[in-house]
Amino acid sequence: MSRILRKFLLGSAAAISLAATPFALSHFDDKEMQQSYRQSWFAMVAMNFGPMVASVKGEIPWNQEMMQGWANDLETLNTLNVIRGFGDGSDQGTTRAKPEIWENKADFESKLNDLKTATAALQETTTGGDRKAISESVGAVGKACKACHDEYKSEDYLY
Ligand code: HEC
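^ inputs. structure came back:
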């Protein structure tokens, strides 16, 4: 063993505290971690998309700057690889994800891609500022949410 490696293994407080943390490597495979990962992602999506829907419906005042911010954050969320939260064996437990997801993974992923496409379009129209166009894009994103929830989520929440 190299001196440097031994020094790291024996002497490093960082190594010891890392081993003790609940985020030790093997836990990344835990189904609970994956379920909270995907549920947190959907919660963040809803926190940004929800107010956009409310704005379109006139339930809250239209604020173009806020609309842009929500659309940008939605687009940022789409850069995360949320499919990592749907690993094999993560179907049972505290979740509304239907088992059909794991039987039709390709279709599920394509519905996730539809959401990405619609979200990218929403960000673009939001930048343009045309209220009617933005409303239509919000509707298209809502359809992408619904298309997936109808088949793969056991209970409705939003939209
Ligand atoms: C590709 C499929 C898919 C798409 C697209 C999708 N969802 Fe979901 N959504 C799910 C699944 C599956 C769950 C259940 C996750 C779980 O309980 O483990 C879920 C859960 C949720 C939840 C509950 C999160 C929680 O706290 O447990 C909310 C809110 C939500 N989605 C909102 C949305 C919104 C808003 C959109 C569109 C902007 C959207 N979803 C698009 C599949 C999808």
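The chain has a mean pLDDT of 88. The pocket of heme C is lined by residues 35, 38-39, 42-43, 45-46, 49, 95-97, 108, 111-112, 115, 141, 144-145, 148-149, 152-153, 157-158 (CB under 6 Å).
thumbs up if we can close this ticket
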